[in-house]
Hints:
Residues 11-32 form the C2H2-type domain. The protein is an alpha+beta fold. It is 15% helix and 24% strand. It contains one helix and three strands; from the N terminus they run E-E-E-H. The chain has one helix spanning 72-87, and strands at residues 18-27, 30-37, 45-51. A three-stranded antiparallel sheet has the order 1-2-3, with no helix packed on it. Strand 2 and strand 3 (45-51) form a beta hairpin.
Amino acid sequence: xxxxxxIVFRCEACxxxxxxxxxxxxxxxxxxxxxxxxNPMCGATYTGHSELTGIASPSGVPTSHSxxxxxxxYERAQALQAxxxxxxxxxxxxxxxxxxxFFPHL
Length: 106
């Protein structure tokens, strides 16, 4: 397991693995990356960036705050939770949180 290396990108020219050589923060949510082909006969280099663009799940820390916008899936989950809370006991779930199907007694 330790001998295997995760391949993130492959060289466009020779399909060898690209190795990240340098990386620096351009700002709080943007990282600039430089990659080099591991094939010494090829030696192609590439640049790119990694960016955080949104919150997919909130932090569990009560005082946390983020400047990133929520993702659409996170906003839908919040809206669904608010809707269910507004219905209270008026809405029956066929599969409640416990996972067991709910069938009222007839």
